[in-house]
Write the structure tokens for this entry.
Amino acid sequence: MNANEQKLCAVSEMDASCRVPLLALFGGAALWLVAGLALSVLASLTFHKPDLFADCACLTYGRLQPAANDLILYGFCIPAALGVVLWVFVRLSQAPLCLPLLPVVGANLWHLGVIGGTIAILAGESTGFTWLEYPRIASVLLLAAFVLVALSIFGTFGWRHHRELHVSHWFLLAAMLWFPWIYAAANFFLVICPVRGAAQAVIDWWYTNNLLFVWLALVGVGIAFYFLPKFAGRMLYNHYLALFAFWTLIIFGTWCGIPQGAPVPAWLPALSTVAAALVIVPIVAIAKITLKTVRGSHAQCKGGPFCYLKFGTAAFVLSSALYIVQACPHFSRTVEFTWFGPAQTQLQLLGFFAVVVLGAAYELLPRVMGFELPYPKVVRFQHWCFIAGLALLVGSLAAAGVVQGMKLADPKIGFEQASAATLVAFRVSTTGLLFLLAGSLLFAANILVMTARWKFGLLKTCLAAATAPLEIKEVRS
Amino acid sequence: MKSSLPIFLAVFVALGASFGGFVFGSISQLGTAKQTLVLNSTETYPVQRTGNATLGLQVYRANGCAACHTEQVRQEGAACELVLMGAGKKPDAVAEVLKEIAPAGGEFSANDLPKTLLRGVTKETADVAADKISTAGGKAEIHISAVGSDISRGWGIRRSVAADYLWDYPVQLGNLRAGPDLANVGVRLADAGIQLRHLYAPRSTVEKSAMPPFHFLFETRKIGATPSPDALPLTGTFAPPAGYEVVPTEDAKNLVAYLLSLRADVPLYEAPFTTAGPAATPTNAPVAAAEPK
């Protein structure tokens, strides 16, 4: 066996080692994405017909919306990203997955936590803190599940055969460290042993910023910096600039998030505003690296995973720009408390993170499973669904936010009149959500058919082994 | 680079800095906060909410009211008014100074005091003018009021500050105004009956309201031997079928008690304003008159 064959053999072994954990993570995640978007559609219907769910406590807007948001973030984004991170670490380490049982257990615990948390929110047992609505028991499950998956990732990293560090290592390792930290800290100080008064709001803002902006950026960009050079068929543009972006992102980005004019001591929002201004540095660096890596590449993308990654990274730059605009004192006075904020969040979650993760998943699934996607053509179709859906959803909500903000700034315009100006936007945004829902169904179909086919294959192998005639040697013995 | 330990340490420090700053910083500053004194008064603020209102906060949390309502009033600045209280022994000298300070409304007679001389000026301008008047032997007061679109909408008298949320768990400031701000809804709409009717059928009180009706917080039941005293006075399309009445559940009553307890209407050191009118004693929240029946 020559060296080349040995490597090929190792690659298939590496991919096979993540098969079960990845299916466990992706399978549930795909269902949660469908469920989350479906709940989002239901929630948005309240704005079309306010008395739609008047008699049903569990479908009231204030419960549906957080449940939907959490399903998209905790149900889809995090576990699907963990799946991709597992595979990226296996590939970067040139070694099979370490402790492969842990992520399987972790994935199931995670999904159990998401089910419990969602039911609790719909039953009125949410904690009341934005993005931290899951009650204590579900949070404990999620934290334990994350630690299990992270242990496997750290193990794979520790036993790596290829010692050289990749840029993605930095981004992803920091993220694996940061999530348990912020999640445990926020839950401890808000839910388990609550602090007094307005400090609760500060901790919730700190957590939200560090999860939705910093953590998603670390993981999403880390994944993109692994896949983009591969697709483009060249090296990542300027390794050192990427490290510079990493350090500036974690040093400045972690201090953002306290809104202007918040009812807290003035140093907190002031510090956040300065940090938000400085965050321009890593964002520009990431945009430059992506452009220089991708531009002029002869690789065709044709709506495939390469397109997803490019679109996702562009969405990241746009959503970060909107985030910085929100923190700028001049604009924040107008767009604060309007639909501009949800528009930015949806762009960050669905436009950037979900698209990057979906692209990576479509790329790695055929390799891990050892056979092609059952519906390869829908990958391209889903990409268009997501682009159309996001443009409608984010564009309409952001525009509605600006209009609403400008009307609210003028006290002569009544509140109802200012809100009525946003009604047209809801028609458009619900349509956008339907496009996204259609796209997520396509992903779920691919994953579920793939899982079913694999299980059927396993069953067939088992059956064949069981019914095969015994070899003469064995009969004699 | 092949060694990963220095990276871990550096990442630990870089990430941990914000944890130390925002989490421990805010806990050490706000987490040990106690009641404060109302400005120019010996009363403490805030007063603990009543039992019903505390239970109502949990209804507010369970139904995610904060998804559409904020509980924070913003303020863009403060404006001062200069009010002449008395002319002292030398009215002529004061009148002379007034011509210089407020050429338009400089004349005054002893009958129309106190008289507002300047409106919407900065603290510095008001201070200088007040000094001149007192040098001339007159007496002037400076009244401070908050300015901003939220204040003009009547959502509050001053900006919200950390002290307003001292006793609440969870603190739900909200981040979207699909509905109006509620930081002072107890001052604005102090009638429990209207609040209940608004919860059951928002459009019966606000014509174009986008708020979903919360029928599940009410019970529609057959009128018994005597109609319930709590039954909502509903008319037209909102009325229940004949022979039925709509009665608020405990949850609805508690929620309204909580809404009525939302009264951030006293001046504090960090958010000062001059209380208007002759009754200068501040009403501390929640006042007895605002309690739901």
About this structure: DSSP finds 17 helices and no strands in chain A. The mean pLDDT of chain A is 93. The longest helix of chain A spans residues 423-467.
